[in-house]
């Protein structure tokens, strides 16, 4: 068996070895991680690596552009909110306080809450406008369909011919009668 002093010295000797080994490894890591500079520029070579995939994503990807646009939009909304509601004259802050119900603690809205409410309002407006446009388009399509149908019927009636190639007068006279009746009805209602 070893004496306690011998174990103590061996232990301290081992820790000294470990400490020295750690220091050597740190030194090696520093040398390995040391940035190597290019002679042409002061940019490290490790940062000059060109990633073609990232470049193409940034240049051509619609998702990337949309994401970037959304970020800019949210930052702009937050900036506008902060400038309008939290800055008074001379750069002093105004405190907006809203009551919950009739009696309750006052709470100032956060930027996120305000941005969300604005976003939801804009989304609802867009939805309403889209529905209105769709409704108008359906009305227009229906009117156009009726117009084309009437035009086709008129064309069929006017283009009828006899065996000898003469126009059939019966159909033409019926069209004239319908026109006169419509004009008479329009004059009475107006």
UniProtKB/TrEMBL annotation:
<feature type="compositionally biased region" description="Basic and acidic residues">
    <location>
        <begin position="86"/>
        <end position="100"/>
    </location>
</feature>
<dbReference type="Pfam" id="PF08524">
    <property type="entry name" value="rRNA_processing"/>
</dbReference>
<protein>
    <submittedName>
        <fullName>rRNA-processing protein FYV7 isoform X1</fullName>
    </submittedName>
</protein>
<feature type="region of interest" description="Disordered">
    <location>
        <begin position="86"/>
        <end position="109"/>
    </location>
</feature>
<dbReference type="InterPro" id="IPR013730">
    <property type="entry name" value="Fyv7/TAP26"/>
</dbReference>
